[in-house]
Amino acid sequence: MSMKSEWAIRLAATLASGLLVCSAAWAEDTQDLAKKLSNPIASLISVPFQFNCNQGYGPNDGDKGYVNIQPVIPFSLNDDWNVISRTILPVAYQHDIAGPSGNQFGLGDISQSLFFSPKKPTANGIIWGVGPVFLFPTATDELLGGQKWGAGPTAVVLKQKDGWTVGMLANHIWSFAGDGDRSDINATYLQPFVSYTTKDAWTFSLNTESTYNWEAQQWSVPINFQVSKLVVMDKQPISLFAGVRYWAESPDNGPDGFGFRTGITLLFPNK
Fold it and tell me: Does the pLDDT of residue 26 top 80, yes or no?
């Protein structure tokens, strides 16, 4: 074997080993980012676009599809604390959700949560945050929102270990102003969740997004199963997700049966 051939083989081996190291590091990075997405108050800017579809509303079995635009933006307060802004901006299309009520398309009511959270978990690995939640009557049609201003407390607590994330997010909103002809808002929201993230950045999650309406004394309990995959496209990390929903309990006017969810999350890690 000539000296040039031997040098070329050594160079190729070095490059190959370097690529393997870089691939392993990338895998670790994507797994870490995927785990952060399972944490509602992670120090990570993310912008999910979440499409949902449900049916069985009202006596005419109306249907509703909506996109939740949900930017999550953390801010550093000092060396020990973050505040995490979580916004839900719904854009909806619906048909006959209140009997023969026709079609509506537009913006729904915006909810805004602010979580004050320690930058480091507790000694037991618990991550938590508390703060206020606000409801803004931004709906562009009376059938797309409650036409009420609302506010209340919100909190989240979770633990992450060995790929698992287990936790609970909750809030309660009371209305304090708005259209006097519309029903008051007095609602508790509970979201227990569990997820598992693999080393190659697949995440399998199960949760409920349950709401109890204290005015109507009725539960809404959708059970969601979702699969997501974090990938990198032209240096931009994104998460693609899809899932199914079963309505274990719903108000008298629906929805019911099964629904589905799909979408994409853009991630902007600090690097």
Answer: no
CA–CA separation, 147 vs 140, rounded Å? 10
If one counts the domains in the chain, the total is 1
Report which DSSP code applies to 136: E
Q: What is the CATH number of the domain that holds 115?
A: 2.40.160.40
Q: What is the per-residue pLDDT for 13?
A: 52
Place of tokens 């609970």: 168
What does the chain come to in residues?
271
Sign of CA dihedral 42, 153, 195, 80: positive
Q: Is 3 exposed, middle or buried (0-12, 13-18, 19+ CB in 10 A)?
A: exposed
Residue 76 identity (one-letter amino acid)? S
The boundaries of the domain holding residue 128 are 3-268
The pTM of the full predicted model, rounded to 2 decimals, is: 0.87
Q: Where are the beta strands (DSSP E) in the chain?
A: 45-57, 62-69, 72-76, 81-95, 103-107, 110-118, 126-136, 148-161, 164-178, 186-197, 202-208, 210-213, 218-233, 236-249, 256-268
